[in-house]
Each structure stands twice: as structure tokens, then as C-alpha cells.
Amino acid sequence: MESGVVAVNNNINNYESKATSTITIKGILSLLMESIDDENCDGGGSKKRVISLGMGDPTLTTLFHTPKVVEEAVADALQSRKFHGYAPTAGLLQARIAIAEYLSRDLPYQLSRDDVFITCGCTQAIDVSVAMLARPGANILLPRPGFPIYELCAAFRGVEVRHYDLLPEKGWEVDLDAVEALADQNTVALAIINPGNPCGNVYSYHHLEKIAETAKRVGTIVISDEVYGHLAFGSKPFVPMGVFGSTVPVLTLGSLSKRWIVPGWRLGWFVTNDPSGTFREPKVVERIKKYFDLLGGPATFLQAAVPQIIANTEEIFFEKTIDNLRHTADICCKEIEDIPCIFCPYKPEGSMAMMVKLNLSLLEDISDDIDFCFKLAKEESVIILPGTAVGLKDWLRITFAADPSALGEVKNQ
């Protein structure tokens, strides 16, 4: 078994030595799961329970539940027998209208159905945004730490990645000076994630305004990944980047996945926030439409359920989700305070994950974050994502959308 673990560690180290575009979170988590020794037992002779704080899937817990009205909306659409055929490639009209109205609630202008395209989750929306902007010599500015799917999509499209840092001492704000230094005439987009994955940060109105002004100054657009939109439970409310669409064109990416606790449904959106009309130029519109002709969207009956899902989900469901996330984040931070080798520079205020710093000087026989996570998995059956996977060596990403009992149990493993 030891040789197998070494081999797995070598695989991960090979990831690290290559471009970050080769790394996927699911790939590393799969390797971590494989490294768990099935023969590893506690003192009583029974196997230790595997505790996973690596995957951002709230359905894996007993704390977060999909509301019944959401399930009923899908059942109604399916049982109507009206949605067994193909949907338009841009998405069902009623779904696009409903999403436009939903997103417009938080904007100073009204989105139209023509601004909205339905995607297979936010992941496909990410790929669409990169594909739409790709051209010879293009580069894209991505956050570090960030979500590695962006790097993977850029690698496939031949787009150069330039990383700007998020600043932990400033609540993981964007290093705007770095953005200005990195951008040039070939920069096609500045990507942000808000609320933040993997950092658990929420950007203030003022900081988003400065991001928009910076993007305008360097002559690029903003891709705003808002898959965790509205999942903010700290001092700062969630503000969509589209609020600043009059300052700089914004591509908003999102989905039902996190807010409605349905990540497996893979229903997302790609939205142009552009009241000034940049994206409405005929060539741009035609390019987007033609690209969507190549894609297969979510199941037609899922799209048909969207208007009912948005209209019928009660506010109390969202409030309960926020309360649960605040509670589990508090537990996670409290438990971390008692672990000397881990330091949390910023208490999360949103999303479902946080970054913590690993102090290797307090650990014996641990070479880096990857080594730490593999030994934690093998010896204690606890899965945590190494920071290298999201671009920050010797840090850890912890998912706190977990059962409170599991968060407390980790410390005692």
C-alpha cells in the first residue's frame, strides 16, 4: 500500500510541475480517495468514517435540502409531456425570460431574453466565455487562488493565462495594481469569482466598482462567475458585477446549482450585461448564436421548470441556507483556532469554501500541502483539497458546507 501512495503522490507532484491547466479539482480528489487505506482502522478495530471536506456539493450533507417546490416544478414539466423534444440551442424562451427577470431584480437596468443563454451548468458557461473571446495571441487574467476549470478551458482554446493575486490581508480582494501591470492590448477578459471560490470572500460594492473602472482603463471586459450568487452571510451583501455594466461590458455566469441545492441538474446561464450595446453588434450576436448551435443544453424539461422554480421558491428556504452556511462556517473557523499548524487569515463571508494557511514548520515529515493532504487521507480518512490545486502552494481549501458533526470530528481524528 505504501508504494501505491507514493505513486499517487508522484502523480500529483507531476501535476504541480506542469502548467496549472492540467489540474482539476475532481481529479485530485479522486486520487485522494484512492489513497485511503481500506485497512486503516481506529483503536476499536473498525474502519474510520471517511470525512470529505473537499467537494463543494451541498447535497452530500444532511443539512442542505432541495426545496419540494423545485422538485414539483420538474415533475410538472416532465409529466406535461410537452418537453420531450429538443429545446432551441439558446435555451427555452420561457426559461430565458425567467432568468432575465430574476437577474434584473438586482440591476439598475432590465435584461432581456436575448441577453440570456442556457448552459449545462456554470462549467459550460465558463467554456463558452473563453471560447467566445479566444483569438490568436489572446490572454486572460485569472485570480490566484481560483477555479482551475478556467485554466483548462484556456489551454484548450490556446489562450494565454496571466494570474493576478487575491490579497488575503485585504479579505481576498483583487490586486488591482497587478491587473494593470499584466493587461495589454491582447487581454480579452478579466475574470472574477464573487462570492469567492475557493476563498469564501464577498466583494463590496466599492471594490467591484474599482474592478469595473480598472477593466475599462485597460480596455477589457469582465467575466463575473456568480455561481455562488446570493450565498453571502457576512457583513457585505452580494452585489452582482452587472450593476457596473454601463462602465464595462460584463459576462455573468451562474446556475441553479448552489442556491437551489441542485448541482447535479447542470442548469446554468451565460448572460451579457451590456446596457451600452457592445454585445449587441450583429457580428457578436451572430457569433454567440452560432457557437450555441454546437452545444447541447440541459434537458428540455429541466429548462421548462425554471420559471416555476424561480417564482415558487419561498424566501425562507434561502434564509435557512444562509443560516446553515453561517453556522457551519463559524464551527469550521472555531475548530481551526485549536489546530496550531493551520491559520485562517480571513473568516469566510460567502460561498461554501475557505482557504487556510499551512504552517509546515510545526509539522514533522510533511514536505508541502500535497503531502499533508495525502497523509491526512491515508492516516485519518479526511479529505481536504491541497491549495496547489487552486494555485496556492502550502495552503488548503476546506469546504464548510458539511454536517456540523463532521466538522467537529475532523479535529479529533
C-alpha termini separation: 21 Å
Mean pLDDT, rounded to whole units?
A: 91
Shape: globular
Strand content: 15-25%
Q: State the low-pLDDT regions, or none.
A: 1-9, 11-21
Describe the strand arrangement of the main beta sheet, using strand numbers: 2-9-8-7-6-3-4-5
Classify the helix fraction into a percent range: 25-40%
Superfamily at the CATH H level of the largest domain?
Answer: Type I PLP-dependent aspartate aminotransferase-like (Major domain)
Which fold does the CATH topology of the largest domain refer to?
Answer: Aspartate Aminotransferase, domain 2
Number of domains: 2
The CATH class of the largest domain is Alpha Beta
User: Would you list the SSEs in sequence order as H and E?
Assistant: HHEHHEHEHEEHEHEEEHHHEEHEEEH
Annotated CATH architecture of the largest domain: 3-Layer(aba) Sandwich
| Radius of gyration from CA coordinates | 21 Å
Task: Let me know the largest β-sheet.
Answer: 8 strands, mixed
Number of strand segments: 14
Number of helices: 13
The structural class is: alpha/beta
